[in-house]
Each structure stands twice: as C-alpha cells, then as structure tokens.
C-alpha cells in the first residue's frame, strides 16, 4: 500500500482563511497537490499590480542563468521585497495561505503576455546544478481575464486552468517521490485574443531573504 506524502498546505473544507481574505477552493488534484483558488486577490489589487508594473517590464528570462529564450516570450519584472504596502499585504497573504514564512519567499514577479506570447512546458524548481535551497511551491495569480487562450496547462496531468481575474493556481513539488515533482511540468498557452497579466510567488525550502 502506498502511503500518501505530506503536503505543505493542510486542507480542511473548501475554504482557506488568511488575516484579510477568505479564499475558495474550486478545483483540486491530490498528488501532486494542485489547487485552483478564487478570491486570492481583489479586483483593485489586480489593477494596482498591473499599474505599478507596466512601465518596468523587460523581456522575460529563464532559469538560474537568466537567459533569453524562445521558450519564454513574455515580459516580466520583480518588485523589491516589501516594496510598498500593497506588496507587503500580498506577500503576507501568500505566506499565510501557503503556511510558509515570508522569509522563504522570492520577490513577487509580474508577467505580461501579449497576443501570441507563451511559456513552453517547464519546471519551476531547478533541475540542474547543486541547488542548496530549491523552490518547493508556486502560487500563480491571474490579474485579468483573458479573452481567449493563455491557459496554464499541465500536460502530464491533462489539466488546463483558464485565467480569471483574482483567481490563482497553486502547486507544490517538494516531494521525496521525484515522479510527483515531475508531474508539475507546466506551461502557458499562447494568448490568442487579448493579453494576460500574472503575479507569481515562489517559495524556497529554507529562508531566502536577508531579514
């Protein structure tokens, strides 16, 4: 009999509460744990993140080498850690939601996909080199509705998540069973009509911030 591995998030029911938000679970896969969440961000928070980021975008890069690649054709930027009250609030909410100290969080990243732009299937954790403090989970928050395309898809699981403003998809890949981690292979489908804005919060296994 296979024993189910421990998860980072401990679920009881279909709602999760942080200090300032009640978040609804509207979809779930158990292994690896993937959650589709609603009401993670308010409409005002989504709009504010886009407004703060839009003049700071640069061509997105991939991996620890920070290389430009056709694998990823979007643009991106990172906020400074705790840059302002809005960023602090969202970082704190993410920390409470994921049950991981904010000191383990990478800076909040904003991604922008124009029509035709995409991110081919990849892992969020680092797969090469001697990584001492690897990523263990991702929270991908959608900042707008996409007219067509732009889904986050997991090809190994035949799962596709449609962007919806204020909603998010969470997935974790810290398991001892590497096959479970590999099932989190995911990509961003090309945006067919409109554009896509996303905020991503990655968490590390150990403290990552100098605080």
From TrEMBL:
| GO MF annotation terms | iron ion binding; L-ascorbic acid binding; procollagen-proline 4-dioxygenase activity
> Would you say which domain of life the source belongs to?
Bacteria
Q: What keywords are annotated for this sequence in UniProt?
A: Dioxygenase, Iron, Metal-binding, Oxidoreductase, Vitamin C
Could you tell me which residue ranges the Fe2OG dioxygenase domain spans? 104-205
Q: Does the keyword Repressor apply?
A: no
Q: Which cofactor does it need?
A: L-ascorbate
- What Pfam families does this protein map onto? 2OG-FeII_Oxy_3 (PF13640)
Which InterPro entries does its entry note?
Oxoglu/Fe-dep_dioxygenase_dom, P4HA-like, Pro_4_hyd_alph, Pro_4_hyd_alph_FE2OG_OXY
Q: What is this protein called?
A: 2OG-Fe(II) oxygenase
């Amino acid at each position: 009999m296979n024993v189910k591995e421990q998860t980072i998030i401990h679920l009881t029911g279909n709602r999760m509460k942080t200090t300032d938000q009640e978040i609804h679970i509207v979809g779930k896969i158990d292994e690896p744990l993937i959650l589709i969440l609603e009401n993670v961000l308010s409409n005002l928070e989504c709009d504010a993140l886009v407004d703060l980021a839009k003049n700071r975008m640069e061509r997105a890069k991939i991996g620890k080498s920070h290389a430009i690649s056709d694998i990823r054709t979007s643009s991106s930027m990172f906020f400074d850690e705790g840059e302002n009250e809005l960023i602090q609030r969202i970082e704190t909410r993410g920390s409470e939601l994921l049950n991981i100290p904010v000191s383990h969080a990478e800076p909040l990243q904003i991604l922008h996909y124009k029509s035709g732009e995409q991110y081919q299937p990849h892992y969020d954790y680092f797969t090469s080199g001697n990584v001492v403090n690897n990523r263990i989970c991702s929270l991908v928050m959608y900042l707008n509705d996409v007219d067509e395309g732009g889904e986050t898809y997991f090809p190994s699981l035949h799962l596709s998540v449609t962007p919806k403003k204020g909603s998010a998809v969470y997935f974790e890949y810290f398991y001892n069973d590497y096959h479970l981690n590999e099932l989190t292979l995911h990509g961003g489908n090309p945006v067919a009509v409109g554009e896509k804005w996303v905020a991503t919060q990655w968490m590390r296994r150990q403290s990552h911030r100098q605080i």
